[in-house]
Amino acid sequence: MATGEPPLADSLSHRGKSEWPKADKSPGQPQDLKKPPQPDLSPTPNPVTVDFTKFVHRDVFFQGATWSVSSGHQFKTENSPTWDTAWCYTRRTVNGVDLDLQLVDRRSPSANPQAPVSSPATFASVGLTEAQARELASKCEWLDGLRFASGDFDQLQGRPKAAAFVVQDGWDALGHDLPNIPIRDVSFQQCQNQCERDSQCLALTYNKAHSACFMKGNATILIRDDHATTSAKEVVSGNLQQSPLVFAKNTVIVGNGYSSGQTIYADCVMACATDQRCAGFNFDANKVCTLLDRTVSSSDFRGVSSGLKATN
């Protein structure tokens, strides 16, 4: 809820014009030239005025960095008693490119403010989630002294929506892990925030037992894992299929093998999960993956990891 509160006394000044005094043009009279008035360099609490627009600037410490936020107030005329529209923005440099981040839009002094304004992708490029963008927007200062909490803002009509996530607990997503993965010692929410900020991340698996985050560039198959939680952006969530594979360690499955080759374990699981012919697989200590189209039984066998598709 907005509350009245005087704005901060930021170091601001009026922009105006200075003129030299006109000299006495009477002939024969000495001209008493006076020095032009010197600008007052001391800080004043007045906002900067440019073309009937007044700006209030403020530096805030947010998310471990200093952000300069500026609010502009447009007046219809020079003598208007109050502003007509207002907005708040900040700037950031990413890879040598300056980005304008529009935080808040106020259509009138009485209208409820709308935030955030720039697209979710723009905020993500500077490392901000939607929630963090609203929090930064709450730091803006206004000429009318109103303050807004992050929950006070309305949504901007027509603005692109942030990538929504579909969460499935107890499942691990198979897919291509992004570089420098996993991210360790993070919460599930921190893992999801990281994925939201990274345009290459389409899905993630969070290992609850080790607080580890595995961000993925794609995902198609889900395998049962009680220690995992999968979260996927809507763009890929509809393509995810839950595999009936049940896994065992130090166990070999006896049956009819139809394909065998050396690979990594994840690719062996993927090969069986995506092949309708495959009823199970064995992966031994020599990294040999054997796909089976018919299974008979299973038995203990040290060093072999196996998977069997459940029939019910």
UniProtKB/TrEMBL annotation:
Superkingdom assignment: Bacteria
Pfam families: PAN_4
Gene3D superfamilies, alphabetized: Hepatocyte Growth Factor
Domain Apple stretches: 175-216, 265-289
UniProt-listed GO biological process terms: proteolysis
Keywords on record: Disulfide bond, Repeat
Region of interest (Disordered), residue spans: 1-49
GO CC list: extracellular region
Basic and acidic residues compositional bias, start-end: 12-25
Protein name as annotated: PAN domain-containing protein
